[in-house]
């Protein structure tokens, strides 16, 4: 592209080519910075549990060798750290799979209402454990979009799990699938919304929330077993389904995540 633009410049096509040329270079630099940041983040996220594992192995081989109680406690912590690394690698693989397929829109009609209802059933035990009530509203008749069912299940799982984890115990989470009639240049659409009544998200964080490894509160995300990749995966799944993701939040009032998809013809 750069070579082509340089040729345009040489051919005397003037200013616009030069402007494009500089924009291309800065885009390239931004991509390179993103790639380096990503590798640094992944390394850091893996190194922390690994350092902890290696510390506990030293303790188990040394001072805690003959302390049965300490051994049990340390082994539990080590198991949790290993699970954390597994979750991170699973999320990284999922993210790269979705990114690879991003420009190939799925072509199978999927009933979004039934898919959401299925995932909400799977999430019910976690909600019960956290004292969160789940309310589901889906139309009686099928609501079809062109989709990949596994990806859509993952999308619902990430949003509902976040609402349960960050929405606060004793509160409710409302999940809805609604048809939207044609409007403007757009045909019929289907909206999925997940709403919680937790502390919400301060407005300055909203624009960066779907970036990989971006968290509002890193310590809280760790406690909740988060990887920081959930919403990045959500964004790519919505994009691949030619949908749009909107996040609204009023601090203290909770957060609403909406994904709007074109309805299947
Ligand atoms: P994580 O694995 O940390 O949960 P996500 O990508 O799913 O990563 O979310 C990124 C961050 O966005 C979370 O760490 C949390 O700070 C914030 N967040 C996500 N969902 C909610 C929500 N429903 N309410 C408040 N904060 C949220």
Automatic annotation (TrEMBL):
User: What is this enzyme's EC?
Assistant: 2.7.13.3
Domain of life assignment:
Bacteria
GO biological processes:
cellular response to phosphate starvation
The chain positions of domain Histidine kinase read 41-265
The compartments listed are: Cell membrane
Q: Which reaction does it catalyse?
A: ATP + protein L-histidine = ADP + protein N-phospho-L-histidine
The answer to whether keyword Membrane applies is yes
Keywords annotated in UniProt: ATP-binding, Cell membrane, Kinase, Membrane, Nucleotide-binding, Phosphoprotein, Transferase, Two-component regulatory system
> Which cellular component terms (GO) are annotated to the entry?
plasma membrane
One annotated GO molecular function is: ATP binding
What is the protein's given name? histidine kinase
UniProt source species: Enterovirga aerilata
Give the residues of the full protein shown: 151 to 415 of 415
């Amino acid at each position: 592209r750069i070579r082509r633009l340089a040729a345009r410049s040489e051919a005397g096509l003037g200013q616009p080519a030069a402007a494009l040329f500089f924009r291309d270079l800065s885009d390239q630099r931004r991509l390179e910075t993103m790639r380096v940041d990503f590798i640094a983040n992944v390394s850091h996220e893996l190194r922390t549990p690994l350092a902890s594992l290696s510390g506990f192995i030293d303790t188990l081989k040394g001072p805690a060798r003959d302390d049965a109680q300490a051994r049990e406690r340390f082994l539990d912590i080590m198991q949790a750290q290993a699970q954390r690394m597994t979750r991170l690698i699973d999320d990284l693989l999922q993210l790269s799979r979705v990114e690879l397929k991003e420009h190939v829109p799925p072509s199978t009609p999927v009933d979004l209402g039934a898919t959401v209802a299925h995932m909400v059933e799977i999430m019910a035990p976690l909600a019960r454990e956290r004292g969160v009530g789940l309310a589901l509203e889906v139309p009686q008749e099928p609501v079809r979009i062109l989709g990949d069912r596994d990806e859509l299940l993952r999308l619902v799982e990430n949003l509902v799990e976040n609402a349960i984890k960050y929405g606060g115990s004793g509160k409710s989470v409302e999940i809805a699938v609604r048809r939207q009639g044609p409007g403007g240049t757009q045909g019929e659409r289907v909206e999925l919304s997940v709403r919680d009544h937790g502390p919400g998200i301060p407005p300055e964080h909203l624009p960066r929330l779907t970036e990989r490894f971006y968290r509002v509160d890193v310590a809280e995300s760790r406690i909740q077993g988060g990887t920081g990749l959930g919403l990045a995966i959500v964004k790519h799944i919505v994009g691949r389904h030619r949908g749009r993701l909107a996040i609204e939040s009023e601090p203290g009032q909770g957060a609403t995540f909406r994904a709007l998809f074109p309805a299947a013809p």
